[in-house]
Design a protein that fits this description.
heterotrimer; A: about 210 residues; alpha/beta; Rossmann fold; 3-stranded parallel β-sheet; two-stranded parallel ribbon; 8 helices; C: about 190 residues; alpha+beta; Beta Polymerase, domain 2; 5-stranded mixed β-sheet; 5 helices; 5 strands; extended
């Protein structure tokens, strides 16, 4: 193979970061994310068992549904008995609860936070709005289907779902994690270009790197 | 004694202390939950968290110092612990107490936080320097009454060797520093509240205002290392206080009972009081505990 | 309140005046007079609080109606001042010098209705919609359903039910419609 071809292939492997101004591109990473396979069988089973019992959710209320997380934290429903704890930073969180409708301004932040979370990461989509737009299906400013922008593991239907429904959703997520079915992180990387295409189609002023490391 | 056997014993002692510290943390979480009227997380939740964080598939790093930050922090915890005799007269739990004295231990208490400052600074998140600044400032202020108490103890026993200090307190419980030098114990116990970073002095880790403080950028294994250190460091501090002020321990059950009661004091305070602002907590430490600490030195030197 | 309106009437044209409730009045002024009337109400009549500034799109009349809602703390009266401006060349004088928080309303109106307020600070920055490329979405000739179907992926299988009919079918099967009462003048 000629040297020119290798250079071109290398260029394709890198992210373009076209949204950033020329002089800032050097400040951000342009490495594509890569898939990370599971550990060996029994160790992975054990770690999955632990992951299901230590869910740290990102305390980022992305819509009205985040209101349902407050009763869940306090004494009435007390999510800490399931090992669920809120973390204020995406670096440490492993579950992202999308609370209801996501406007375009929010989906930009959602994508950013989701990419900054360390895998394996799980997404819990709350409310009808994340499934098909709910009562905002004809709105100019909210998305209709969340799974076109980030991979979703569990949906909770309703408008609004009660905290009991949320707990049921968390239990469903636990079962899925324990069975090793939640692989949203690798799914996102494998279909990276498709997700990016969808995201860039609605986020018109893309002024961040293509992947927020 | 053969140094190899000594290292082996110290390793056992470190593992026991870490497990004990983490279990204690779990019990305390449960107690806080009961105060809030909640059921609370399981006692072993902290272990699950640590295993989960080690089991993360991705861990983002920001550079060499970022790697070294948690390592320094763990080294601080280990250093504090390894130079304290845990159980008086026990071979397994005496650690390397012959090699170091009280001043070395006090240095190691500070060392971890400094290392953490270097590591968290490289993460580049603006909130971690705020947390670090608050942490170091608060640490400097609560070290003042603690140092005064330690000086009083050193004057009292005419030594800085922890084993000798424990030996001098054996016999009756009236020989404990708690009864022979009460002012020093009061000053030190107040500074323990700051050291444990429970409620009135928890601004360093303020989860709402400066998300989680210094370790904000720490993830996966880095965070797990810090959590492990938190268990070990808690145990080390409690054992140090037990040795200096409450007569040490002659077997492991007495050690567990005494350290649990010492920790309970800061949990009671933490569950009942709201949080201080940084400048309030600094003023607090530099006022009454410092005065009590000075009184303790005067008391022990002249009476 | 009547006296205040009388005093204003002596100065400029404010017809029509509507009294919605005992504490809610609406007056309509010409576009040129808005700064005059607002500063007069604020400085002399005690309407010191600008509660909100919003717009209504009258597509059929080719007009925007701006409503400045003022509140008087002394006599506890709301007063809405309506202004009609041209829909094509929508431009309005900025009032951020009278109430400094008005710039935020004006920025919002600029983004959602496309009404321009020259000299208002940061009025051209995006407010809710970042990088919007279509016509301003709150204008009534903007078809939001069509835009939503074009931009966001529609999930098939969505169905809507009329609540009254649906509940009659599902819950109240034995529901008997109330007999119609015949009146003589039917």
């Amino acid at each position: 193979m000629e040297k020119k071809d290798i250079n071109e292939i290398e260029k394709k492997m890198k992210l373009a970061n076209e949204g950033l101004p020329e002089k800032e591109r050097i400040l951000f990473s342009d490495v594509r994310p890569s898939t990370v396979g599971p550990l060996n069988k029994h160790l992975e089973q054990f770690v999955n068992w632990v992951r299901a019992r230590s869910l740290w959710l990102l305390a980022f209320g992305t819509g009205c549904g985040a209101m349902e997380l407050r009763p869940l934290m306090t004494s009435r429903f007390d999510m800490s008995r399931f090992g669920i704890a809120p973390r204020p930073t995406p670096r440490q969180a492993s579950v992202f609860v999308i609370g209801g409708y996501a406007s375009i301004k929010t989906i930009k932040r959602i994508v950013r936070s989701y990419e900054q979370m360390q895998g394996p990461k799980f997404v819990l989509a709350l409310g009808s709005c994340t499934i098909n737009g709910g009562m905002y299906y004809d709105s100019y400013n909210t998305i209709n289907r969340l799974d076109y922008y980030i991979p979703v593991d569990v949906y909770i239907a309703g408008c609004m779902p009660r905290p009991e429904a949320l707990i049921a959703g968390f239990n469903r997520l636990k079962e899925k994690i324990q069975a090793g079915e939640c692989d949203g992180m690798n799914k996102y990387v494998e279909n990276f270009d498709w997700y990016k295409k969808n995201q860039k189609q609605i986020i018109k002023d893309w002024n961040m790197p293509d992947y927020n490391w | 004694m053969n140094i190899g056997i000594k290292i082996f014993y110290a390793a056992i002692s470190v593992v026991v202390a870490t497990v004990y510290g983490l279990t204690l943390g779990g019990i305390v979480r449960k107690m806080y939950a009961r105060v809030h009227g909640r059921y609370g997380p399981p006692v072993w939740q902290l272990f699950l968290d640590i295993i989960k964080n080690h089991g993360k598939r991705v861990g983002i790093s920001h550079g060499i110092m970022y790697y070294l930050g948690p390592v320094f922090r763990l080294a601080g915890g280990l250093g504090t612990y390894l130079f304290i005799p845990v159980i008086y007269g026990s071979v397994v739990f005496s650690n390397f107490s012959v090699a170091g004295d009280l001043l070395l231990v006090m240095y190691f208490i500070f060392f971890g936080q400094l290392g953490m400052a270097l590591g968290a600074g490289e993460g580049g998140h603006p909130y971690s320097p705020i947390g670090i600044a608050r942490g170091l400032a608060q640490m400097t202020t609560f070290e003042v009454p603690f140092s005064l108490a330690v000086i009083a103890v050193a004057i009292q026993y005419q030594t800085l060797n922890i084993t000798t200090i424990v030996a001098a307190q054996q016999g009756s419980f009236l020989n404990w520093t708690l009864f022979t030098n009460p002012f020093a114990v009061i000053a030190a116990m107040i500074s323990l509240l700051g050291m444990n970073m429970h409620s009135p002095f928890s601004i360093v880790l303020a989860p709402q205002e400066i998300p989680i403080g210094p370790p904000i950028e720490m993830n996966s294994s880095f965070l797990a290392t810090l959590q492990t250190n938190r268990g070990l460091f808690t145990a080390a501090k409690l054992v140090l206080f037990m040795n200096l002020f409450f007569g040490g321990a002659t077997n492991i059950f007495i050690m567990i009972a005494k350290t649990f009661l010492i920790y309970l004091s800061s949990v009671i305070v933490g569950a009942s009081f709201p949080r201080f602002r940084p400048e309030q907590s600094m003023r607090f430490f530099l006022k009454w505990p410092t005065i009590i600490g000075i009184i303790s030195i005067v008391f022990i030197a002249y009476f | 309140m009547e006296q205040i309106l009388k005093r204003i009437k002596e100065k400029i044209e404010i017809e029509p005046v509507t009294k919605q409730k005992s504490d809610l009045y609406f007056i309509t002024v010409a576009k040129e007079h808005i700064e005059l009337i607002l500063s007069y109400l604020k400085d002399y009549e005690g309407f010191t609080h600008l509660a909100f500034l919003q717009a209504v799109d009258y597509l059929e009349d080719n007009k925007f109606q701006l409503t400045y809602m003022l509140y008087n703390y002394n006599i506890k009266v709301n007063l809405g001042i309506k202004v009609f401006i041209n829909r094509e060349k929508s431009e309005m004088t900025s009032i951020h010098k009278l109430w400094s928080h008005a710039w935020q309303y004006q920025r919002e109106l600029h983004e959602l209705f496309g009404i321009d307020f020259p000299d208002s600070p940061r009025v051209h920055e995006s407010f809710v919609l970042e990088g919007w490329e279509e016509i301003p979405p709150m204008r009534r000739d903007f078809d939001t359903l069509e835009y939503s179907e074009r931009t966001y992926y529609k999930r098939p299988g969505r169905s809507t039910n009329d609540p009254q009919k649906y509940m009659k079918e599902k819950l109240y099967k034995n529901y008997v419609e109330a007999p119609k009462i015949r009146r003589d003048n039917d």
